[in-house]
Amino acid sequence: MTKTIYISDLDGTLLNSDSEVSSRSARIISDLTHRGALISVATARTPASVVPLMRHAATTPPFIVMTGAALWVREPGCYDSPVFMSPQLLDNVLSVMTERGINPFVYALDPTDGLLHVYHSMAMNHKENQFYQERRALPLKKFHIGDPLPDRLRDRVILIYTTGPADSVYEAASLLDTPAMPCSVSAYPDIFDPSTALIEVFAPTVSKADAVSRLKKAVGADRLVVFGDNLNDLSMMKVADLAVAVDNARPEVKDRADIVIGTNNDDSVALFIADDFNA
Length: 279
Fold this sequence. Notes:
Blueprint: E1 4-8, H1 10-14, H2 23-34, E2 38-41, H3 47-53, E3 63-65, E4 70-73, E5 78-80, H4 87-99, E6 105-110, E7 115-120, H5 126-135, E8 141-145, E9 157-165, H6 166-176, E10 184-189, E11 196-202, H7 208-218, E12 223-228, H8 234-239, E13 242-245, H9 251-256, E14 259-260, H10 268-278
Parallel strand pairs: 1-2, 1-12, 7-8, 12-13, 13-14
Antiparallel strand pairs: 3-4, 4-5, 6-7, 6-9, 9-11, 10-11
Helix pairs in contact: 2-10
């Protein structure tokens, strides 16, 4: 019997337009999990927002968080297999960004408390402030606005992230995504505002593709089915046994997919998993 693991992106894919896992999707996922289905998510988000979003959907495999830079184990609630960037790469990335007026959030995993500490040392633009305000009270993340990254955490940086004008973000991404700058870069448009883009920078080996492949092996699955909607999902779609795009996905994602299903507002991912698992 084939053992399948199902891994879905969150925003624009499993989450609806209200940025929620609907009660119907949560119920379907929980029922399937109790019957033995292996279901997880692969997202750019951190556990601070993934955990509350998935609170009503029971799953057993770890979550892939921060685009594959780490796993999050629901019980007991801890990080697994974090991938840190070197201090030299950190300095190079920050130099490229600040020269283009981009002032990023720097995420470091502090070994003293096991939490993500997020540093932003410059004045925030509107989008950055909105990002911060929406997340400042989350329990698994601590923000340090106006504070530089402390020296003791320079070798514990797991992510550099920001959002800003698309032109500036894509220019920075093109300069970082070169053989001379060994890092993993993901830049893609905001699904709600195409004039704005998001950029994430990680250590060179980090990708959703690497993370889903490792998780497939870890759970002993023979088959990997992934779901996505945006450009940062393309890497995991390339290594999947079955790549599924939601109907609201970007054209490039639909072109890469083996199957296009309904939209993220129609519980399409959960319904597809149910049909596939039952078959």
